[in-house]
Design goal:
There is one protein chain. This protein has 94 residues and is mostly helical. The chain is built from 6 helices and no strands. It has one domain (2-93). 23% of the residues are buried.
Amino acid sequence: MCGCFVVALGAFFPRIALALIWLFGDAVERAFNGDWIVPLIGLLLLPYTTLTYVLFYWWIGEVTGFTWFFVVLAFFIDMGSYASSARAQSYRTA
């Protein structure tokens, strides 16, 4: 039940979902082997990618094979959000 809530929240607010997973569980620490700088950078710059990686690591235990497709797809979603905000900014200044 908790996993479904995180996915639903993460669809619209990935930073909040990732922060909640980080604060109230150990999935982020296990996914990144106790490192804190990589998930922090991911939280700030690539929230969908980091959240996808952590969720697959949490549910499956590792990210291998076809699950990397979803991590790469999340990366493209992150890049698309940056591109769309840059495009919107250029329309406002023109």
